Amino acid sequence: MKRRAKESSCPGLSRASTSYFLDAAKTWMAELSPANTERLTRTEIHRRAFITLLGSAAAWPLAARAQQPAMPVIGYLYAGSPDSSANLLRAFRKGLNEVGYFEGQNVAIEFRAAYNEFERLPDLAADLVRRRVAAIVTPGSVAAALAAKTATATIPVVFGIGTDPVQAGLVTSLNRPGGNVTGVSYMQGELAAKQVGLLHELLPEATRFAVLANPNNPLVNDSIVTDSRAAVSSIGGHVEVLSASRNSEIDAAFANLTGQGCQALLVSPGPLFGNRRIHIAMLAMRYAMPAMYYDREFTEIGGLISYGTSLVDQYRQTGIYTGRVLRGERPTDLPVQRATTFELVINVQTAKTLGLTIPPTLLARADEVIE
Predict the structure, then answer these.
(1) CB–CB of 114/144 below 8 Å?
(2) Distance CA 323, CA 95 (A)
(3) Which of 51, 77, 129, 172 is deepest in the core (most CB within 10 A)?
(4) What would the pLDDT profile of 38-49 be if each residue is shown by its tens digit?
């Protein structure tokens, strides 16, 4: 017959631990004077030893919890609406995973979104600083990155932006960022001349171009407009700038396109237009306006043509850099990552709907053709 050792009368304590505390009780008894010892009953002695055991047992879990390292928290500051960028958030998490961080297991993420109300960004950044997050990540927005940099000089800030971070005032140089800020540059703001050239190749007779730009994103807006005007001027054309910072203004901008005689449209990058990509692609079809986009996601949902870096990959890179910062690398030692590969995607079905024929030379250079 198997015998089971009698369990200790104090749950959670091993037999060795119980023996240790009983020895301690005996030592305590031995230190009492003979007179006091005679006055103590056996019941009192056992009661005091038992209280000592309970006190020590209760303290153990507290000590164990105190020794466990706190889970680091990432502050995710987003200028737009995260609800419409679920795929980009997945890419960011994938980047974290690649360097050993998994949300809910060894890292937590606190989300703060401005929903394209840029004036809220400073307060949201300050809230994350008060939360004492381990790092602040600002994907897709210069304004969010600047708000985070202004809010703290000690918490690491990892940005993901489409323009030159030196020109934006985020870092002192690309190779040695300096301070507590580094990140990834998508270089979207530097592609306007190339995008105009591709539109001209598709529409060689076009001379009146429009640029849809968000005035609340001035650094990207100014770069896109300046480069577009220079490129269009070189082919003897003219550029109309259509400003939009909310849904109603986007609708009004498209309504004005045909009235101004525009023959092609270039959509500038940013979270406002990215969050409304379905709406914008549908408006372009409604007004039969050939449009160039900065991200393949527009073309995948029915846009005509896109040229730019893969935002999914750039968000993944931002996640990797954030994980490296959590591991202890200093932002000042992490050079700003710049996009090196760009994708040309053409939607042939949309071209047919618009009555356009894609030149064979342009199709041959496309990284992907959507039939």
Answers:
(1) yes
(2) 8
(3) 77
(4) 444 444 544 444
Question: Would you list the domain boundaries of the chain?
Answer: 12-53, 73-184+312-337, 189-308+341-370
Alpha-carbon distance of 328 to 360, in angstroms, equals 51
Helix axes 121-130, 142-151, angle to 10 degrees: 40
Angle at alpha carbon of residue 231, lines to 226 and 235, rounded to 5°: 140
Torsion sign, CA atoms 48, 54, 57, 61: negative
pLDDT tens-digit profile of 255-274?
A: 998 888 999 999 999 888 98
Give domain 73-184+312-337's CATH number out of 3.40.50.2300, 3.40.50.300, 3.20.20.30, 3.20.20.60.
3.40.50.2300
Q: Give the residue among 68, 74, 76 at the shortest CA–CA distance from 107.
A: 74
CB atoms within 10 A of CB 265: 25
Considering the segment(s) 189-308+341-370 as one domain, its CATH architecture is 3-Layer(aba) Sandwich (3.40)
Q: How confident is the model at residue 69 (pLDDT cuts 50, 70, 90)?
A: low
pTM for the predicted model, two decimal places: 0.75
Residues 306/299, Cβ–Cβ less than 8 Å: yes
What interhelical angle do 277-286 and 247-259 show, nearest 10?
Answer: 20
CATH fold match for the domains 73-184+312-337 and 189-308+341-370: yes
The residue to which tokens 């800020």 are assigned: 181
**Which residue did the predictor score with more confidence, 24 or 157?**
157
Q: Where does the pLDDT of residue 4 fall: very low under 50, low under 70, confident under 90, or very high at 90 and above?
A: very low
